[in-house]
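Dear Dr. V.,

Thank you for agreeing to look over these. As mentioned in my earlier message, I'm a first-year student in the group and I'm still getting used to reading structure tokens, so any feedback on how I've presented them would be very welcome. I ran two proteins. I've put each sequence directly above its structure. The first is here:
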Amino acid sequence: MRVQTYFTKLLQVFSPLPVNFSREYEHADKQQLSRSYSISGTLCTPKDVQLKDVEHVQYLIHGVGFDSSYWDFAVPGKDEYSYVSAAADAGYTTFRYDRLGTGLSEHPSDTYNEVQAPTDLAIATKLLSMLKDGQIGGQKFSKVVGVGHSYGSEQVQALSATVPHLLDGILLQGFSMNAYVTGGKQLLTSGAYSTASQVFPERFKDADLASTYFVTLAPQTQQLNFWYFPFYSDAAFQRNRETEQPVTQGVLFTQGVLMQNATQFTGPVHVVTGAEDWPFCFLDCYAVPANSTRKSIPEYVQELYPAVSDFSVYIPENTGHAVNAHYSAPQVYQEMLGFVRKVLSG
């Protein structure tokens, strides 16, 4: 219980800070991290439909609380929630992977100095380079669309700023300019994050997870962060709860450092955020100041892309943060794939 007590105290320190938490709480010196990690990924190439182009791929990065199965979300007897299947039906190859500390990827014991946002970005950059160089599946991909969800979108956005030449377009799902101000802090405090092995002892008791791997405390706190009732099925909610993935203390407190101006990126940018997204829109994505030139909160993302002429936003109604698990998912996928089609056919 001491770990939980200290973590809750950190939340109290973190929430009111107007600046980056790590810079306030940690020593300013940086340490070089040089490690090799085991990362689990899946490359899916359509077989039963006409492949649009063997050299094109969507690069999918999931967010907090999920592993890469977020993109292949499965409810027993249904395939309508799988973005991977929708993409395959449309003839597009996808690559998704479990972030460090989730799913079948490695779970390091140092959950602050190792499993944190800068490490995740370094891994994302390496895997993207491997895709381009033909080191994944033996196929060099000449065109890549980066697709993220929530914290995964923060990584895709950072990739467009740090390695813009490796991406031809990006799609940021469950994202807004509030990624640090409300996104991280809303998710942290309202999720009431607690030690994963205590919340789900039957799942994690033999996983040898450090006590600073966290999950949302209860179904109610997960609902508050990710879901918008009643526009999802009980089966989808239960499936997500049963498969919720842990997140480290390091990721929770450092995720806000990734977002940056992408001054050199010129490819198309598309933002897809549910109208009732809790972490990034506080349940109303149209709640902008009366004198604003923007019509919605996600539209402010354009400020990160001064060199982009093709910027667009889609806000599906009756949809919370976990976009892929709501009833609206099939329609959202078709809209997303319309953007992908435009990027890859251009």
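The second protein is here, in the same arrangement:
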Amino acid sequence: MAASPDLQDVKTTVLMSELLRRLKCASKPEKRVILIGPPGCGKGTQSPIMKEEYCLCHLATGDMLRAAVAAKTPLGIKAKEAMDKGELVSDELVVGIIDEAIKKPSCEKGFILDGFPRTVVQAKKLDAMLEKQGVKVDKVLNFEIADSVLEERITGRWIHPASGRSYHTKFAPPKVPGIDDVTGEVLVQRKDDNANVLRSRLAAFHKQTKPVIDHYKQKGVVNTLHAEKSAKAVTEEIKEALG
């Protein structure tokens, strides 16, 4: 077992900042939220805002899988074995990794789950795992947006690889076309950020994930957001949905 860090070596400003954060979070109600929406719908923009506002942990399943594999946890080792064979990681493994994550102190007030469930089968397995803990999904935020709007968003997106800063030729252009504002380095476009790949991903989303929304609508926990609006307007819709 790893030794606890010596608090004497932690800067006072860091300790005070964490203490103030915990005091602020103490009065926050618990919330367990699922984000559902196609690529480019704005989930990545809204997640950090929600995490800060409601003191939730953000669980992106792709990142969690990579972290579990890197940490060589028992579930991470099983996931790596599947990936090394070119197989999909089983739903049970992913739910197990989520189960482990939400028991951490950072998830004490609840979580934002992004990237899972993608199918009704996965949703039912997630529900069953939460039920064993005596909790349930409180809210599903459905980022609804027209495919045509997404195509314009995605195909115009450019990235600064080193920092992750993103730009858009129409909505958030760099000062100099193709150049990062901060470093002056060349921007790149992700291989996936093209119309053909997007259409394929959207077809898969509509086929698999729309039924997940219907599953949670039956439970009365779905709020549909107008994701084509500005980021600020969507934030306000989320605040209204989560209370």
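From my reading of the second output: The mean pLDDT is 90. The domain at 30-145+205-242 is CATH 3.40.50.300 (Rossmann fold). Does that match how you would interpret it?

Kind regards,
E.
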